[in-house]
Write a structure and sequence with these properties.
Layout lengths: L3 E8 L9 E8 L4 E5 L6 H8 L6 E5 L5 H4 L3 E4 L13 H7 L2 H4 L7 H13 L15 H15 L3 E5 L7 H16 L3 E5 L3 H7 L2 E5 L3 E5 L1 H4 L2 H7 L6
Parallel strand pairs: 3-7, 3-8, 5-6, 6-7
Antiparallel strand pairs: 1-2, 1-4, 8-9
Helix pairs in contact: 3-5, 3-6, 5-6, 6-7
Length: about 240
């Protein structure tokens, strides 16, 4: 049972627009890390949002051989930092606690045990000392780690991350890559939008190389060949 299976996925924002993304098919195997790479405007974020039904799309998407609606609790989504309202009056601990709600119920009162559990996940991302700090007062790397802690609290099986390394410090990058490796060892599956070809080759099992369509996919040494990179990073003809 594949955590994620995509077939013939295409997306355009309106019927009058050209396709932003077309004819993408792939399957993510359990316990693997898939990196989504390509130039700016290649459709990487569009791809992720289409998978999550945040954008209208054609084609089929299956999660654990079922629908998104039936498997939401198993799926953790970490959006780009630029899409988050950092002025919202919540602390790092509050954000982490949000990851518990799919399991405990939105109307259930937060107990001391729940807060202790959330603190455990903040400790995993080295933010226990910042638990009560408002999220906008955190650094970019710390903000990214807060949302990773929330995903850990959710106890998801499939993690979808949109540019988690963008604008973060080296310490956070190292911590996140270590977390990804640990999650993989636990059988978790990750789909990660990334921009650094060298880092992707070192840390990911499978690569999707996009430029409005699927240019190449496979193991890093195959999908990131010189020929594939040249094709992906060449301008698309209108």
């Amino acid at each position: 049972m594949a955590p994620l299976s995509v077939k013939d996925l295409s997306c355009r924002y309106t019927r009058q627009n050209n396709y932003a993304l077309r004819d993408i098919s792939f399957t993510a195997k359990a316990g693997t890390i898939t990196g989504v790479l390509g130039p700016n405007g290649a459709g990487k974020s569009t791809f992720l949002k289409s998978i999550l039904d945040l954008l209208p799309h054609e084609g089929s998407v299956k999660f654990f051989d079922g629908t998104l609606a039936k498997n939401r609790q198993k799926i953790a989504y970490i959006p780009q930092r630029s899409s988050v309202d950092w002025d919202f009056p919540v602390s790092a601990l509050d954000v982490c606690l949000m990851g518990l709600y799919p399991r405990i119920g939105w109307l259930r009162r937060i107990s001391k045990a729940h807060k202790e559990e959330a603190m455990h996940y903040l400790e995993q991302v080295k933010l226990q000392d910042f638990a009560h700090r408002q999220i906008g007062a955190l650094s970019g790397g710390q903000q990214q780690r807060v949302f990773m802690a929330r995903a850990l609290a959710q106890q998801a099986e499939l993690f979808l991350l949109d540019e988690p390394m963008a604008g973060v410090d080296q310490k956070t990058q190292t911590l996140l890559f270590d977390l990804f490796s640990d999650l993989k060892q636990k059988g978790k599956t990750m789909l990660i939008i990334h921009h650094n070809l060298q880092a992707a080759s070192a840390h990911f099992d499978h690569i999707l190389l996009l430029n409005q369509t699927l240019v190449a996919q496979g193991a890093p040494e195959q999908a990131l060949s010189e020929d594939a990179i040249n094709r992906a990073y060449s301008p698309i003809e209108a």
